[in-house]
Amino acid sequence: MKPPFQTATRVHDVRYEIRGALARRARELEQQGNDVLQLNIGNPGAFGLRTPETMRRAVVRNLKHSEAYGPQTGIFPAREAVAMQFQARGMTETRFDQVMIGNGVSELVDLVLRSLLEPGDQVLVPAPDYPLWTAAVVLNGGKAVHYPCPAENDFIPDPEQVRRLITSKTRALVVINPNNPTGAVYPESVLQELADLAAEHDLILFSDEIYDAICFDEARFVPMAPLAEDTLCVTFGGLSKVYRACGWRVGWMVFTGALDRAQDYMLAVEKLAALRLSANVPGQWAVQTALGGYQSIADLVARGGRLHESRQAVIDAIERSRFLEMVRPMGAMYAFPSVRADVMPDFDDHRFAAELLEQKHILIVPGSSFNIEARNHFRITLLPEAEDLERAFRRIDDLLEELAEEPERVRLAQ
User: Residue 2 domain-assigned?
Assistant: First the structure.
């Protein structure tokens, strides 16, 4: 028998369990006729949260202009709309040629890292992180160095701890705010310290702000770019989350700050963008409409709105549970609960997620999938209706009760 075909070794070091083995098993269960509540992905359209009608009309009206390749950097109306958003945020000198459109933020993350990293270069990434960042660093020959954002500090990083991780090989600092997976929204003082740290050590600052308009209660989103004028700052945003258009695959990034020293780097990024010809053209026609005028996300996150009520349902369910605790999410569309160590000291997140799927038909993401050592967290999305989340947490508590009576079921294999 011939041996299996070769698989690149670098892929073995990549983790993306959000769509991994558990998700594949969930599909098998659904094919067997089971209903599975999929809480693993922030996918608004899957939970009935539709893209605004005005954006759909903008795409339809411009389909006749979408059949040819677009510019590798994106169509002018989309780039200009993003630049104007930055001008409104205080970056008054921002111009369209500082903006690049991509097939979602995921593609753009790959482009900026591939244009930057030499083998062994280091990138500072938060832990917990959105695992795409760590994966993209690894796939582009770098090393992800994770700086802690601990639950005991409301998942907010300590800039001094970040400083201690910087070496001569560090090239960039990643900030995810509002944060996925924790829901933390960083205060301006912390963002300013991180920006100053990047400038002091001549690091590129990558600011992932895809959830910028999803903040709850008193939380306030502060953009990084106005705080980081002394180094190169690359800010990422897109239509997927705030505008509920995940399938359209439209993201953007904006280069600000030390542009005089970034021209070669920006040209390298554009060269790689040219290799894939252009980003999805039809979806780009919705950007100008999305960023201008009425912002419907405000209704969803305000008290009484769909996302606010779903978040509150999770908060209430966890307060009722004797097993669970949680730092209240203040932004994004996720919660990151943990199982109390004093109640279940031998809890294992992967084993629990597998049993929850098999027994209760609920799909979650184990917390350690987000590049942390702790094994007592899990992530869920806040997108379902509040009643569905209430039912889900009743099932979660039921399983925890069963496991508490048989603790050997969650002990690590010897």
Answer: no
In a domain, 111, yes or no: yes
Residues 78-95 have pLDDT tens digits of 999 999 999 999 999 999
Distance (Å) of CA 126 to CA 91, 242, 266: 26, 22, 24
The H or E element spanning position 92 is none
pLDDT of 103-139, one tens digit each?
A: 999 999 999 999 999 999 999 999 999 999 999 999 9
Short-list 331, 312, 319, 324, CA closest to 386 = 312
In a shared domain, residues 188 and 271: yes
Domain end among 261, 291, 321: 291
CATH number at residue 15: 3.90.1150.10
Query: Is residue 42 domain-shared with residue 180, that is, in the same domain?
Result: no
- Lowest model confidence (mean pLDDT) among 151-160, 194-203, 240-249, 397-406: 397-406
Mean pLDDT value across residues 28-36: 95
- Average pLDDT on 134-162 reads 97
- How many angstroms separate the CA atoms of 394 and 391, rounded? 5
Average pLDDT value for the chain: 95
Domain total for the chain? Answer: 2
* Residues 318-371 pLDDT 10s: 999 999 999 999 999 999 999 999 999 999 999 999 999 999 999 999 999 999
Mean pLDDT on 298-327: 97
Indicate the residue among 265, 291, 317 that finishes a domain. 291
The residues, ordered by sequence, that sit 6+ positions from 23 with a Cβ below 8 Å of its Cβ are 38, 40, 363
Same domain, 240 and 347: no
Ramachandran area for residue 244 (φ above 0: left; ψ -120 to 50: alpha; else beta): left
Cα–Cα distances (Å) from 183 to 151, 186, 187, in that order, read 11, 10, 13
Which residue, 181, 72, 68, is CA-closest to 126?
A: 181
Q: What is 18-80 written as a DSSP string?
A: GGSHHHHHHHHHHHTT---EE-SS--GGGGT-PPPHHHHHHHHHTGGG-SS---TT--HHHHH
Residues 45, 58: one domain?
no
Rg (alpha carbons) of the chain, rounded to whole number: 21
Residue 83 lies in a domain: yes
122 part of a folded domain = yes
The whole domain housing 286 covers: 53-291
Residue whose token pair is 């740290």: 197
Task: Identify whether residues 241 and 390 lie together within a single domain.
Answer: no
Output the DSSP codes for 169-197: TEEEEEEESS-TTT-----HHHHHHHHHH
